[in-house]
Design goal:
The structure is a homodimer.
Chain A (H helix, E strand, L loop, with lengths): L2 E3 L7 E3 L2 H10 L7 E5 L5 E10 L2 E10 L8 E6 L5 H14 L3 E6 L10 H14 L7 E2 L3 E2 H5 L6 E5 L8 E2 H4 L5 E6 L7 H9 L3 E4 L7 H15 L2
Parallel strand pairs in A: 1-3, 6-7, 6-12, 7-8, 7-9, 10-12, 10-13, 11-13
Antiparallel strand pairs in A: 2-5, 3-4, 4-5
């Protein structure tokens, strides 16, 4: 059954946007009485029937509603330096959405070659992964922010930083966290965090973590952390 | 330090191919006496000094050798149906190489939309990930083979199949395997394995596994399995 992302769904009758109405009628060739799935991004999974349809306007009637669909038992926030090649960040967003993540913040670091990201485009990648993987919760993409500004914010839960510098204090994530809590993990740029950034993070209570024994790219490291947190919370 | 992949390295003096010599001299602008890293794909990590150099011919003298570099404590073989969009399979190969995998076989299944793969191109993706992640062991890419032919082969170790059909027998990988062994995991195409293929696999001693609670794309499922096996063997 086809899935539409309808974050502004607030009643038992819903009208698709003109763009989605056209997609529904012209591309999918759906017709009166057909059923579709709707996801509101807040845990709501709906089954709806097409109650009226024309090229520009498709009206849906909710016939079944499920709340807290696939509700997660923890909160994972990954702050990642945007990759030089933006495809790699988009790839991470797609995969992390499939596997399970709640919040992502692009952080601009001292050694970031890419200092600008188009949040709207990245959010579209997340939305299409939400639909594809039928995740009823839409991960939140925060605006890009500099690393130092980011550290000035308040966080609840476990604070972890993955860096490449030799560091005896590094431990694997499972040694540092317990299940069912909030986690914030910092992933640096291709050139790693600067020593000053690392020192700043440690002062702010972040624990250095190691992600396996191999040398991972930025987006692979971020996904590895995402895997591990979800694994710990299975 | 720059890394070259030299599978045919067999003495203390080595000459780069014309292509790599040009890359070394013209692109990297390296010169006499500079040091580089060599990886032979069989666990050998070498440090070499440029003992002679011109545009088409770079000669290297091994100054330090390390064997069994990053030797793995298990053997992971993933047989995966090539994705319709080949980029997704290439992406999996890159990421699996970074995280850790020993053998990959493209399997052509009943519902495979893509029935042809260019092994040479896929192997190049693996090689570049080997160099990038400094993995001294080069994962083996087997030629594509049909699912039924593949099942006729002999395997040692744990046999797992990840499918999307409802199946009470499905368990998570960690419930089915022990560390430090050989693992073979089957990952189906976008349309999943056919019931006949699943029955065939079960007859051949494969255990159905579940990969988390979310709906994963083919390449994401394969990487998830790769992550979990490596995690179990940390």
């Amino acid at each position: 059954m086809h899935i539409f992302y309808t974050p502004d769904l607030d009643s038992d009758v819903f009208t698709l946007s003109e763009e989605e109405s056209r997609h529904c009628s012209k591309v999918l060739r759906l017709s009166l009485g057909d059923h579709v799935h709707l996801i509101d991004g807040k845990g709501g999974l709906f089954e709806a029937e097409i109650s009226a349809i024309n090229k520009k306007n498709v009206q849906l009637k909710i016939v079944h509603k499920q709340s807290d669909f696939g509700k997660r038992n923890h909160h994972l926030h990954i702050a990642i330096a945007p990759t030089k090649n933006i495809d790699r960040l988009e790839w991470f967003l797609e995969k992390a959405t499939e596997i399970g993540i709640d919040e992502v913040t692009p952080i601009i670091c001292d050694r970031s070659e890419r200092r600008i990201v188009k949040e709207e485009r990245l959010d579209k990648v997340i939305t299409s992964a939400v639909k594809q993987s039928m995740t009823a919760y839409h991960p939140k993409l925060n605006p890009a922010i500099t690393f130092s500004e980011f550290l000035n914010q308040d966080f609840i839960g476990a604070r972890l930083i993955a860096h490449c510098m030799a560091d005896a204090a590094k431990q694997s994530i499972d040694k540092l966290v317990t299940p069912h809590q909030s986690y914030l993990i910092l992933i640096g740029p291709e050139g790693d965090f600067s020593p000053a950034e690392l020192a700043n993070a440690l002062e702010n209570g972040f624990n250095p973590v190691t992600l396996g024994n191999t040398r991972l790219r930025t987006e692979t490291a971020a996904l590895y952390a995402c895997f591990e947190i979800n694994y710990i919370n299975r």
